[in-house]
From TrEMBL:
InterPro entries: SH3_Tf2-1 (IPR056924)
Species per Swiss-Prot/TrEMBL record: Vitis vinifera (Grape)
Stored Pfam families: SH3_Tf2-1 (PF24626)
Organism lineage: Eukaryota, Viridiplantae, Streptophyta, Embryophyta, Tracheophyta
Protein name, UniProt field: Tf2-1-like SH3-like domain-containing protein
Region span, Disordered: 61-89
Amino acid sequence: MSNMQPKPKRVVDKFLFEPGDWVWRSYEKKKFPTRRRSKLYPRGDGPFQVLERINDNAYKLDLPSDDSRTNPFEERGNDENQQAFKDPLHVPVGLITKARSKKIKEALKG
């Protein structure tokens, strides 16, 4: 055990934020693929104010209105103008042949 190197202070010390603190939000490529398309895009955004501490690793931030969506199925912003939910999709009953699948593809394309 005496041969082990001490870990750097930044790894050992955890960051705990309190309500009112200002933080930066990082864009991970897996979670925000549209904001990290290239290595030249910004890696984060902010500063944002911490509104509430949920646990030691999760915080509620004061985000701008375009980023503050909690439910991806809510209608807001650009979603209100889409006709996808207003015109329900008719699913055909029976066997799907090549001709029927071609008609379905044409109907979906518009």
